[in-house]
Amino acid sequence: MPANLPPQYLEAEKVYRQAKSAAEKLEALETMLAVMPKHKGTDHLRAELRARKARLTHEAERQAGGAARVQLYAVPKEGAGQVALVGLPNSGKSRLLAALTGASPKVADYPFTTQLPQPAMMPVENVQVQLVDLPPLIGEATPPWQRALMRQADALLLIVDASQDLLTEWATLHEDLPNMRILPVAPGVEPDETEGIVPKKALLVATRSDLPEAPENLELLALDVGERLPIVPVSGVTGLGLELLKQRVFSALGVIRVFTKPPGKPADRTKPFVLERGSTVDDLADAIHRQMKTKLRYAVLWGASGKFSGQRVGRSHVLEDEDVVELYA
């Protein structure tokens, strides 16, 4: 099966070949992995790039003086998806992380409080989503490891302060991110292909929206942003908009929750399998165990994707969120 690699991949591959340091090569590899289409034709190439990434990580560790220093900047993905918090100095990212996750990052009313990536898990109903608070953007001086983490993430939360000049903050983000070869796009929108640019699903989150000056600032922001990105007003102090933001984040990730059940017993709705939207019964079996995928004959299904409860379906049946499935080998 052909790989059908997009122009962004070919541009990143060119950057990889011209890179001088291990850090620059790692950044290019992250871009290549992020823009590569996911299908059977790219499985071998994806595995090869991941092997290259592992070798380069060891090389970067040696250049940095040891593994401990590199691990400070590495954030392996966990949960239903990884979402990076991106913003300018003192935009309220750390306070928002604490409000959404219950974590205790360092929070202060002065800029650059966050120096390292701060991961924490955000509960959304019966799943966990990983949020990563990143240091503030500093334009072209934003380090390669931070750019790589933004490309690695499944989605971005662009954080602005509703009590300040929102138009200036938005204009800075709108200019800086494409300069870092990252294009924020609204979830569900098919982005235009641009060489060297990685499209990332994003929400524009306005913190401190409980303050008196926020409504007027938000109205001006909405006029400027238009339909380009959804705007979610929130407050880490009062809790304004936090539940809505959780739901928007889950929706933006493009995943579904599927429950399995043994014959004659109820489904365990506390531990769903999280799959990409568009996944099939075959994909569910593979997520459970490779042997199950090999032996699977059919499934019985309850949920939105079936015509009726208890419908017998084949391996290629496309699942929907909160389907319940019995697998028969």
Description:
The structure is a single chain. This protein has 329 residues and is α/β, with parallel strands linked by helices. The protein has three domains: 64 residues, no CATH class; 180 residues, P-loop containing nucleotide triphosphate hydrolases (Rossmann fold, 3-Layer(aba) Sandwich); 74 residues, Beta-grasp domain (Ubiquitin-like (UB roll), Roll), CATH 3.10.20. Helices cover 37% and strands 21% of the residues. It is built from eleven helices and twelve strands. Strands 1, 2, 3, 4, 5, 6 and 7 form a seven-stranded mixed β-sheet that branches. The chain has a five-stranded mixed β-sheet with strand order 9-8-12-10-11. Helix 1 packs antiparallel against helix 2 and helix 2 runs parallel beside helix 6. The radius of gyration is 21 Å and the shape is globular.
